[in-house]
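Ex. 9. Protein: TetR/AcrR family transcriptional regulator.
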Amino acid sequence: MVNEGDSQGEAEGDPGTVRPGGRTARVRAAVLRAAEDALAEHGFARLDLGDIARRAGVGRTTVYRRWGTVTALVADVLADMAEQSERRADTGSLLADLRANARLVQRTLTDPRQAALFKAVIAAATSDARTAEAMHRFYQRRISEWSPCVEQAIERGELPEGTDPAEVIRAVSAPLYYRLLASGDPLGPDVADRAAEAAVAAARAGAYVRIVP
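Predicted structure tokens for TetR/AcrR family transcriptional regulator:
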């Protein structure tokens, strides 16, 4: 828990722009963890900044002054998730890289806490524009992180020139999210591997080559 009495001289700063050490960073980490717990437990609709402040062990005024609204706090949760997410693989093989990507997504979506958190945020994004924007930024950051795997494969001659890296990365994770959110089918490592293999096969066949008008 973080107490407001620590190091009062530090400025609060804007969400997502704080320096890595000191009270400001400790407060942000505690509040974001509390927000994630609350989202995983009872979803977006019942989020309350006062409850999150209590969970985090910080003053209500600190939370209200720094984030102001539930949607601003959820946006910062997503920004933090992007910052903390595992970095991309670099094996020298497109298939191995994309298997690593798929396995990372699969582990996240089968973790009880993380799966509940993603479901809550995705549900919120369907009805709240600011949350939707934050989610789009989160996924764009993850796609940008993994796109070099595809770019390097193009340079090695594994894929046709003009292949769209972002589309290949999307193709890996899309069937995994479908199972989480729509079908409810089992989501094991074998499913992740098949998603990566299918994306690679389609990319090699030219399915993701950009069409120039």
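Check your answer against this statement. The chain has two domains: 22-70, 85-204.
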